[in-house]
Here is the input.
Amino acid sequence: MSSQQVSLEHGEGGELSHKLLREVFVSRFGHAEESKWDAARLAVPEGRIALTTDTFTLQPLFVNGCNIGKLAVAGTVNDLTVSGAVPRYLTAGFVIEEGFPVRDLVTIVDAMAAEAQKSGVRIVAGDTKIVKRGTIGGVIINTAGVGVIPPEFDLHPEAMREGDAVIVSGPIGDHAVAVLAARGELGVMTDLPSDCTSLYPMIRRVRETGAAIRFMRDPTRGGLATALVEIAEDFGAEIEIEQEAVPIRPEVEGVCEILGYDPLYFASEGKAVLIVAEADAPRVLQALRETEEGKEAAVIGRIVGRGEGKVLLKSALGSRRRVLRLQGMQLPRIC
Amino acid sequence: MSSQQVSLEHGEGGELSHKLLREVFVSRFGHAEESKWDAARLAVPEGRIALTTDTFTLQPLFVNGCNIGKLAVAGTVNDLTVSGAVPRYLTAGFVIEEGFPVRDLVTIVDAMAAEAQKSGVRIVAGDTKIVKRGTIGGVIINTAGVGVIPPEFDLHPEAMREGDAVIVSGPIGDHAVAVLAARGELGVMTDLPSDCTSLYPMIRRVRETGAAIRFMRDPTRGGLATALVEIAEDFGAEIEIEQEAVPIRPEVEGVCEILGYDPLYFASEGKAVLIVAEADAPRVLQALRETEEGKEAAVIGRIVGRGEGKVLLKSALGSRRRVLRLQGMQLPRIC
Here is the structure.
């Protein structure tokens, strides 16, 4: 099948749909038993699950260090991970354009299977719709994810207090710059790969330290600034960030300077922001730095109070400005 | 907001995304608490869950008796229901085209909220991506669903045996004909509404009878024929259907005769196929017929053996032909 193209017939629910499902998806995701039912039937322990969804419209589909399949798995694994869950099961909903090469679809599906394996996650249910040529840029993927929240480890945003450390697990904005470069737009020329990766293995290490983690979020669409503003507003915390402490690679700084963007709004796809009890910050930092993904982790700020939710950015010279959600849009779009 | 159009800025993760999320989605789905986290955190009992996903690309978005939002909720509720689960939680992933009227989006989201309520299902997590004008026909919706499989009620396809009854909960193909009519293509003129509805309330009634249900499936894309072939092949059952016993409305028969289609391949979106122990068939039929959705339910065939999975269609004159999955496609496409 791999020399072929996806056709509208593949979306009709008949013999060709069945063949595509079996040869491309079931063989790679290994959910032969589940695919006999309209829904996968799965064991969970009593307690709480985490449930999330994200649709991926990455353009181009293949970026240095990342493709839409890898991103679709990592993105949802990460949403579960930062919500305090152990990622367990994913669903995958594909919308595929007529004429899309089956070979490219296989590359994408292989990347999904490989990325899922890193976190011990199973892709247990899927769906495929085929749409007309020239509409969606090849393929759109939705993933939804179920994780299990272990009662012995949970996040406690309500316990956030003055002095808590704000940690970021590594340099921000790599994904945004890699996408800009892959588009060949605006003269961005760089070999910087996207940071796209699954955060669960790294966060598992942090959890094993027993540190009191108040909250986590991954700074994707909207960047670090938006992630921090959301934490501040949703849980009534005043956060102060030291501008100089935020890790940013020279390539990202360079692109932002030339194009007039603020890297605080640039998406990462393999970074976590952690709010951690003051006393536990050193061991969290150490645990992060012992992993490949977290080796450039840094404390970037503190919780300075509760009440009105806001984020302040303190410059090297000591001046403070309020950080807001992204207003309007940064061009070009990268989601 | 309702006089406005969706713009690319609504997809950037910033202030406008936040506003769209809050005013259109959170206010209607009522998941304010869950939306503070990257994943909703939900209680489940110990045991098994059902997990499924489906992406909806309905065109046009509004059809007699159905819109893409109602369909997106009913479709996933139905996949959970026929898998033996009590539907509990849904996620909703929207891809919206630049320029799409917020008013239409609100109509769609209202339909989703109303449909979810019929089964007591909560929409607890969502995502929105905005794509360029003129690409996806307005909006594409993915829903994933989690249901809980009650241990005291389960399906047992392995127990299928000769004599088991095959029941369909009502006339087939209404949805396909309603979509054809809404497209104004091929001269199909009819007021027949889509049968789009959530099956859970009806199936709950059937379950309360305590009948031994072997298996259920909803005959959507690919129609009744494909649903039966999948059951036969997946669980090694020989199924014989009485052609005259399959309920089909005159409007659907008429469209198929004129256009040369086979209604057995026409999608329904509010019907269930049930395989039921022979002795329990009468009370299942009675329970179905006591509901509005199931009042035209009928026994359409029997399991005639185990082993090679196949479906036979017996005509009024007693001849038998083998029923296959849809080969190629029926034009026009209706998914």
The first strand of chain B starts at residue 40 and ends at 44.
